[in-house]
Amino acid sequence: MSAALASRRHRVADLTEAIELCYAKGWTDGLPVVPPTPDRVEAMLAAARLRPDHEVTYVAHRAVSVTAEKVAINAVMAGCRPEYMPVVVAAVEGIGDPRWSYHGPGTSTAGAGVLIIVNGPVAKELDINAGDNLFGPGWRSNLTIGRAVRLVMRNVCGSRPGTLDRGTLGHPGKLSYVIAENEAESPWPPLHVERGFRPDQSAVTVVAAAGPRQFYNQLSNTAEGVLTTLADDMRISGNVGQPHYVVVLAGEHMLTIAGDGWTKAMIRDFLFEHTQNSYAHLRRTHLLAGDVQPGDETRRRPLVESPDDILVVAAGGRAGAFSCYIPGWAGRRASQAVTKEVTR
Amino acid sequence: MMEILDPTVEATIQPVKFVPRPDSLSGKRVGLVDNTKLNSDRLLQKIGDILVADYGAAEARMWRKHNASVPAHEEIVEELRASCDVMVAGIGD
């Protein structure tokens, strides 16, 4: 199988020189990488049962065919174990999907990360964290799977900071931004089931996304109380026209909200209704162009087009009256969340 | 001694032919591609007006992309190809 690997080979004296060569070539995200030796790359491909020349996705905006071999090389560099490879592959399929629309989130000054939400049995099998310190640090799978996707974007799709990745600020999630849903303790159907998969299937949902914004409510013991706090914070968070929001409800809030009998659909409807701004407010705060017009004080603009554009995920630690929301990047026509099955 | 594999794509060489720049805009049909960002249409219209008034272009017509983050869609590319001699694409922010 070694002969089938088509990538150019570089000879180095030892491990240290290999790591430094990866820096010198501009292949890393700033952290050291695991040198992608042929045997490591082959193990990665074998774990996903993929041929090196298999096309994982074609990114039309970059005219780039992303092969399994390149995904595997970057996954090795990111520090992935071979068994993570099918998850990395599914996420790369997701960002190559025309609905995700690579060019915008891969390039934009608004600095999108690739939020990757993992559902189904694979999350537990790979120890993908759904609990304490949800966004890190501490879990190899969470940190290396997202890092592999970002390295593919950098090394295969050309999204290098300063050239084709022009994020004004970026955010820490651009290093890795992987979470699992806490399906074991959640009272609700998991995200991938809501998006058309069976519970026994594994899937990743990729969302072009800003950073997570934590909110706090330890005074209310009702669903409406907790979600009122959330809605008040979310309402002014967007840049008008977000395609999605992801709402991540951690242990205490999850139990409070579910204890009142609220479903995910009820949460979405409540948030949709209570996150609307008046046009007057949006014009006064210069989020919409133009002077305040007659009727603008009462005319309301929803945060997203539909309640279904709010993705609700149960995840985060059991202790602490905190949850978060994550604004999606840009607008609905610019990029949409995509869910892909993890095939093994 | 060890060997490592290159994580980047080796670009395949593709010949790209550019249309020669016209010596003059006199009588040329100008296509303007609005990328939908705020004021991009105003900026492009102003440029188009100047090209007609000061450089003798025959006309300046505008087409609109679906949104700023995607390439121009095939329909407008075809129309531009059929009905324009030169094009101006711009950004509004």
Primary descriptors:
heterodimer, A: 344 residues, alpha+beta, 12 helices, globular, B: 93 residues, alpha/beta, 3-stranded parallel beta sheet, 2 helices, 28% helix
Task: Furnish the topology, listing elements before pairings.
The complex is a heterodimer of chains A (344) and B (93).
Chain A: E1 9-12, H1 15-24, H2 38-48, E2 55-59, E3 64-67, H3 68-78, H4 85-96, H5 103-107, E4 113-119, H6 121-125, H7 140-155, E5 178-180, H8 191-194, E6 203-209, E7 213-216, H9 223-235, E8 245-249, H10 251-259, H11 264-274, E9 277-278, H12 279-284, E10 300-301, E11 310-314, E12 322-327, E13 338-341
Parallel strand pairs in A: 4-5, 8-11
Antiparallel strand pairs in A: 2-3, 4-6, 6-13, 7-12, 8-12, 9-10
Chain B: E1 2-5, E2 29-34, H1 40-55, E3 59-64, H2 74-83, E4 86-89
Parallel strand pairs in B: 2-3, 2-4
Describe the structure.
The complex is a heterodimer of chains A (344) and B (93). Chain A is of the alpha+beta class. Chain A is 33% helix and 17% strand. In chain A, the strands form four sheets. A four-stranded mixed β-sheet of chain A has the order 5-4-6-13. In chain A, a hairpin with a 4-residue loop joins strand 2 and strand 3. The longest helix of chain A is centred in the middle third of the chain and has 16 residues. Chain B contains two helices and four strands, in the order ββαβαβ. Chain B is elongated and about 70 Å long. The relative contact order of chain B is 0.27. The mean pLDDT of chain B is 90. The chains are: A alpha+beta (344), B alpha/beta (93). Chains A and B meet through strand 1, helix 1, helix 3 and helix 5 of A and strand 1 of B.
